[in-house]
Write a structure and sequence with these properties.
The complex is a heterodimer of chains A (about 180) and B (about 200). Chain A is mainly α and about 180 residues long. Chain A contains six helices and two strands, in the order H-E-E-H-H-H-H-H. The relative contact order of chain A is 0.15. Chain B is an all-alpha fold. Chain B is extended. Classes of the chains: A mainly alpha (about 180), B mainly alpha (about 200). The interface between A and B is large, with 59 and 71 residues.
Chain lengths: ~180, ~200
Amino acid sequence: MERNLTHIALFAALIAVLGLVPKIDLISGVPITAQSLGIMLCGTVLGARRGALAVLLFLGLVAIGLPLLAGGRGGLGVFVSPTAGYLVGFPLAALVAGLVVEKWRVDVGVASFAGALLGGLGVMHLCGIIGMATVLGKTLPEAALLALPFLAGDLLKAGIAAGITRGLARVRPASVLSRA
Amino acid sequence: MLTLTSPIDTMAHRWPVAPKLVAVALGTALIFPVADLRIMAGALLALAGLHLVLGLRFARHAARRLWMLWPFLLVLVLWHLWTAEPARGALIAGRMVFAVALANLVTMTTRLDDMLAVVERGLAPLARLGVNPRAIALAMALVIRFTPVLLDKASLLMQAWRARSPKRAGVPVVLPLVLAALDDADHVAEALRARGGL
């Protein structure tokens, strides 16, 4: 019980840190935020339930006014802004990524990549696009156009999340709770 | 840790939190179906006026917070000039600015302690569903405490990387950071159990 709680809390902090650390270069020379990497890791490392709860805890703290979103954003305003759909997609993305790793018993790297792709890329952008379409008064294909530039970065992050989860499984197998 | 509460004190800081939250929900729900540009302009002017009543410096601070919407405003302007529906574009832009500004106003005028108190009261009924509200409050406190701790660890890891490599720190730093988070989680769980648990 205590261990579940502290894992959820520390991974919520990890999502925040990955969004606030400015100079992690995912592709050399192009600093892009690693926040969605944190979301994917919540799912692939903690598993579906704990991962989604960690993301919900993170969002709760953002809502009460802590500047934990990438670029130091936060507060209630972000939940009605055009990017609000992505925030709805965050916990679902962790849930889906975790479910894939828990249920699909292949190599943990492969399952993590599939989970991060389905959750962090598929579900997250689906929610994000619906959100942008609603707030900006556009059709879904038009809103999808706005999300397009970010797909390449998130594809890369899914690969990185898989690599890190596999690395964790190798150096400390017990720490990958989604497979425990 | 810094919060998004405005350091510029206004009378709105002393208004009770729950009514402010209800006002945001109502305001957002009411602005969405507005289809008349005059009503939209009136709502925006009223909101701007409220900011000014709270103080000129505060209003400027709030305006800076709204600046993050500029990429979306740019998209809307270009789009609706292209489709030649400027009125519809103005309506959508006004709706977006109003909703975000209203929500920001509450965030900027509510202290974290007051907000946490409301959250705790709001969570109390969950106890009947088998959810422990104290556990949620503790988890929130842990995140607030450990975000700066992990941030420090991240910056140490990046410094160590830079001492050994001409390139900037990248992905290899994330794995040890995740390990640090997992270790901290285990240590805090032990410490909690040693003190009688949840």
